[in-house]
Amino acid sequence: MHLTVILRITGTLLTLFSFAFLLPVIVGLLYGEPTLSTFFSAFAITLLSGLVLWLPLRGKRELRGGDGFLVTALFYLGLGIFGAIPFWLADATDLTFTASVFESISGLTTTGATTIAGLDGLPKSLLLYRQMLQWMGGMGIIVLAVAIFPMLGIGGMQLYRTESAGPIKDNKLTPRITETAKALWYIYIGLTAACAFAYWLAGMDGFDAVSHSFSTVSIGGFSTHDASLGYFDSAAIETVAIVFMTLSGINFALHFLVWRRRNPLHYFRDMEVRAYLLVLLLVAIVVSAILWLNPNSTSQPLRDGLFQAVSITTTTGFTTDNFAAWPTVAPIILLFAAFAGGCAGSTAGGIKIIRVLMIYLQGMREVKRLIHPNGVFTIKMGRNAVSDRLVDAVWSFFSVYVFFFLLSVCALMAVGDLDFITAFSAVGACLNNLGPGLGDVAVNYADISPSIKWILIFNMVLGRLEIFTLLVLLTPAYWRR
User: How distant is the alpha carbon of residue 416 from its chain centre?
Assistant: First the structure.
């Protein structure tokens, strides 16, 4: 383990992140808001800390195998703490240190769970900063850093593997990892710009359009209003959100393939995308039907059912209605749909559709083996055979996922004396990077105890890094290597 290299990279990432505080300063100047000292202080503290770690240790030594796990963990911890500075210092939020870190980590991991009430009255500079945290966390600021690391003498493949989502982490869109990261970000920025323009055409003002495009494409769910997208009460705006939430839940490598070959049919040739769209459709139909049969739940069952189905299933977390108050089975269906989440390689959370598919196909293979004990059956994704090693990895992930989920639910009920629905939904919302929950966390997470907030913070990072990136750091073998 090259500790000096790890600290140098962490310092570099913090130095880069410090400049994110400058855009809210510009917004604060434009609107004449009293937040300039808050963001300048955050900028100075973060920049100085990053330089202290980077300058004395700069050099050309490369990461060793496995070092990326520690860099990623340190970075999320560091960014979570330094990113909390504006929330902690701002008079408008009046948040404790724990609540500030919760808000920061929630943004960075694109969870969207908030401890802030009264968003409509917050300074626009602070609102934009919350949205920026999600936008940077959506694709992964580490992937952005990978694109410029060659100029700093730092190899980035280790970081790319630990940050990218899904069971297959070695696929590169281009021969060079730097070009891969750039390609991902070009697509990400392009989708964000298109989303902002579409929101503006649909009726949002410029500030809200840009702000919501950040949290839509990142599948984060933060809004500039307490009522989320329900504030606008616009079918056009909700349609834009549905389209871009759906697109952002698709593997970005597939977006790259479609763009390069100029052939949208590649979307429908992908088995995971077909399953993803089918899940969205089925959840929307079931939830809308439940609302239709219970007319007192909402005045527009089809519109609300469709929007919430896409928003929750993709783990975005935007809302147009208080779905926690819907007939009991509807919110439970939505919450379970979020466990599946979006496609691997997307900005969505959850287990990922490709893993759900593999678990289903493995189950069907076992049924066939019972019928034909001597038969040889191969799992295929489309035309490609799936190795047993990959199937084992998926089952291992699922087993550890379920273990940590149940452990966290028990911990919340023991530490905070929460009821089961609140504890279950809070852990599910944070581990799946969804945001809104049920019960006592249906509106926000402001009233839960600090100890519960720290458990949920751990779950957010655990879900964002897909468990094993953090789990490997808890094994003695990692530190003995």
Answer: 26
